[in-house]
Amino acid sequence: MLIIGITGTLGAGKGTIVDYLVQEKGFVHFSVRGFITEEIVRQGLPVNRDSMVTVANKLRAGNSPSYIIDQLYEQALITGKNCIIESIRTPGEVQSLVEKGNFVLFAVDADPMLRYDRIVMRNSETDRISFATFIENEEREMQSDDPNKQNIGKCIEKADCIFYNNSSVKDLHKRVEAELAELNIGLG
Fold it and tell me: What is the reported pTM?
C-alpha cells in the first residue's frame, strides 16, 4: 500500500493529479477539503474558504497538528489499496505521514493569474472570490509559525516532487507518469 499526499497552491492542479491517479492508476481518494466540509456543515457554518481555514485550524489546535490527515490515513488503511490524500497543508501533517512509511509527497504550483483563472472556471463555493482576495488567502496560508495553521510553503519545500503546472493537462499527466516511473512506483 502506497500513500501519495498532495500539497500545493490554490488552483495549481491538485485535483487534476488526483483525478489522474484515481482514474488511471486505481488510487482511492481522500480529501481534506471533504473532511472539513462535512464538519462545517455539521456545525451549521457557511461553506467558504474562511470557514474551511477556521474549522481546520480549530480541529488541529484541539487535537494535534496532524489530526485531519491522521483521520484520513486511518480511513485509507482500511481500504488496503494505494491512496491519495489531497490538500496537505501543515508540516505536521507531512511529518506524520512520513513517519507512517510508504509515503510520497507531491506538490503542484503554477503562475498565480493562471491559477486564479482556473478557480474562476471551477466555480466551487470557496472559489467565488476576487483576484485580490485570492492573493490575500494565499499569503495567509503560505506560512505560519503556528503548527496548527496552514504553511503550504513549508509543505512544498518538503515535497519529494514539485510539478509546475503552467501547461496542458496532458503535459501534467505525462510528468506525473514520469515521476511515478522515476520513483520506481510500479502501478497498473
Answer: 0.89
